[in-house]
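Morning - G3I inputs below, output right after.
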Amino acid sequence: MTTRRTFLNQSALAACALALPVTAEPTITGSQSLKAQAHKRGLLAGCAVGAANLREPDFTQVLIDQYSLVVPENALKFGPLRPSPTEYNFADADALVNFAHDHKMKVRGHNFVWHEQLPAWFAATVTKENAKQILTTHIQTVASRYKGKIQSWDVVNEAINPSDGLPDSLRHSPWLQLIGPEYLELAYRTARQADPHAKLTYNEYGIENENEADRTKRAATLDLLKRLKAANVPIDALGIQSHISAGSGQTWGNGLRDLIAGAQSLGLEVYLTELDVNDDAVLGDDTAARDQQVAAVYRDYLAVALENRAVKSVLTWGITDRHSWLNEVKSHREKMPNRPQRPLPFDPDYKPAPAFFALRDALAHAPHR
Ligand code: G3I
């Protein structure tokens, strides 16, 4: 029962609440979130998640509010999974896959085969004689564990490197040296058999910009995809990592359009898998000006990349500048140790940056899939 005193107290509180100025904070959740705006256009909005991030309440709140697709930044890579030739450490990957499941998010797997983040025991243990067995056993073990829970797997990551001067511009990776070019087909066929539900993706960087190096790498990447499809290798999607820069004169146009159209003509979906905008080349220390230049790159890049309906998802490589891998890059640490990068949709204090609004606007205005 409400006493007279309680009633007066509640009325006074209500009056105060009405008198308080409404904060000017723009609405960014619910129907105004990245995932809601993406969903309206038949797209998925996602991000990479570091293992430690799930222990940060601020991080998980933004993750739940804004994203419907997650990818472990490191937890599903060969090295982090394999502390020894006979052990698997699934703890961090399980935590993220379970978190995603509990919050109805899809999960990307990244990655089975890469030349980086191989475990310390790899070089001394893997030989031409056992490499195929080690590769297939790894994929079978990991893909089977998450069977039916992975929307798409980056089966092979960054296999093209024209500057290595090898046939078909293949990268001089340990897997190529140990198995030969057939390591690619072996990886995709093994992954398909282990998890028929997942979309099998080839993931690459340095194929986005209108410059000579990216043009060369784009052509080699499309040629690789054509060869794999011609050999009936089970591959479903191209991942365009989208690690791009502000202030460095990069532009995006017909080269990117032709890459996406080329993948589409092979029956592939396209995912923008690791979007972030390096701002080291943006001159001056005016943070607001830097943020505006980064937002302009999100706007300009996505205006081209999202034109084609073959592009189904946009993931940023992280959520907040606070955790960006770009701050660990050697060149950044040497040249600008005291100027942390601002490459992502949320600033170090989890405030939406201009890049957030540019990303959301691009999603909201993309052609409906
Ligand atoms: O986990 C260990 C920790 O135990 C140790 O104390 C610490 C000391 O160095 O290292 C930690 O591992 C680090 C790992 O990230 C987890 O934080 C590695 O040193 C570090 O090299 C590793 O960096 C990752 C990088 O890939 C490896 O090349 C970045 O977080 C990750 O964002 C980055 O992601 C790649 C994609 O997978 C592929 N596309 C490019 C992208 C950026 O390089």
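Note: The pocket of G3I is lined by residues 73-74, 116-117, 157, 205, 241, 274, 325 (CB under 6 Å).

O.
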